[in-house]
Amino acid sequence: MDAADVAWVLRGTVVSSRPDRTLSIRPDQLVVVNQRGYISHLEAADTAQSKALLSLVEAGQVGRERVVDLGEDGWVLPGFVDTHIHAPQYINSGMALDKPLMEWLEAYTLRAESRIDRDPHGLGARVYAKLVQRMLENGTTAASVFGTISVEANLVLAKAFLDAGLRGQIGKVAMDQHSIPTYVETTSSSLSSTRSFISAVRELVAPLAPEQQIVEPVVTPRFVPTCSMDLLRGLSDLARETGARIQSHMCESEGMVRVCKDMLGGKSDVAVLNELGLLNERSLMAHCTHTTAPDLALLASTGTAIASCPLSNVYFSSERQLPLREAWTAGVKVGLGSDISGGYRLGLDDNMRWAVGISRMREGQRDAVRVAPEDGEADEGSLAITWQESLFLATLGGAQALGLDGDERRVGVLEVGSAFDAQFIALGDRRSRVDWFDLADEAVDGQRDGEEGATAAAGHKVTLEEKVEKWWSNGSEVDRRAVWVQGRRVYERDES
């Protein structure tokens, strides 16, 4: 390997999800990242090739500033993929969660977005600069993002992501009905501005190398109640023509489901979106908490992915939550979303924990909450998911949902050929909430050295997997030392 092509060398533990949703934890690995931001080598540090690469470091051919020792209590894992976030709603994050969904939109959300559109280069720039900073601090390296209805404000948003080095699929929201008077479009203006936004974002990234084109436009009907059939049909045609991805909301709450059926003559939003060609292998639908077994089968057959937002859904979906295990069994791709500001927590850590907790509650109430399989299908077993499976949701599952798991741009995993979108977790900071106690030299059952029956190896030394689990349960931004996107270090913790 040419030392000049080496951007980073990392040595230590590598944590990454597998496609079967299990977790791989590999100690003492050597990771080499090339100048284009891809992993070019990942093997145990004691192999012949790893030793040859380490010799380049020892010889000074790779600068020490590019070498990272992950340490005994640290590891590198894929960056988090936030599959659903409303960037302008960061204004309201952590408050204004006191109303049902449809009332909440009018009282708080649409007004916050309208404020951004009125002052995109002032308020908008300040909000988006803080948002991307916080996302990186929380380990988020890619996101599917709803913006506002303004092309100008959404370009400010796209530039904020690009300047920060954060991977983003940015959507100019389209809506031509059922909004507040000061924040709505006509059908024709919505379609023309969506087309303009797609062109502008592609022009923005065109001068960059292909691997650095980390921001892309997404066709974004807000959701069925705010879009006329003519607008939805036009957006479907535009997505097909431009090849842009599609994102929207679907069957999020009981109120939304009822409103859709009232508007659509008894049809569900799932049926209408499918009829208009908005459900396909490039589509991502947020929430889907009220999906039925036939709905899940349809999503699987069309290749449509789900953005699950457990924390937000607790507020807006009443007793219904996404039938996650059933979705997996049906073959639907699922990732995690923060849903700022419907969810108050920007990072995905709490959403991983809520995903596990909600699934365990569903298992405890399985007869009441199960989405029954079709005739002849096997029972999918426990509805509960493990903490390891929730890490899959936050990383590889999210990458699959965003279409970022292909050969040309593969994220969500750490393996040779994948983009180096990663976060370095290092335990031991005095401010960390993660503690553990090695008991390898302790005696069993209170017996002390020299007492009859005492054993030599009576205690237990905390394993790597247990440390990762403790971090999963109690970790915070304090434990995150650095973050990379496409091999560029985009965040480094201030050690002062």
UniProtKB/TrEMBL annotation:
Keyword annotations of the record: Hydrolase, Metal-binding, Zinc
InterPro entries: Amidohydro-rel, Metal-dep_hydrolase_composite, Metal_Hydrolase, Metallo-dep_hydrolases
Keyword Zinc set for record: yes
GO cellular component: cytosol
Biological processes per GO annotation: guanine metabolic process
Domain Amidohydrolase-related as annotated: residue spans: 75-431
Any one Pfam family match given in the protein's UniProt record, by short name: Amidohydro_1
Known cofactor(s): Zn(2+)
Metal-binding recorded as keyword: yes
GO molecular function: guanine deaminase activity; zinc ion binding
Superkingdom, taxonomy of origin: Eukaryota
Name recorded for this polypeptide: Amidohydrolase-related domain-containing protein
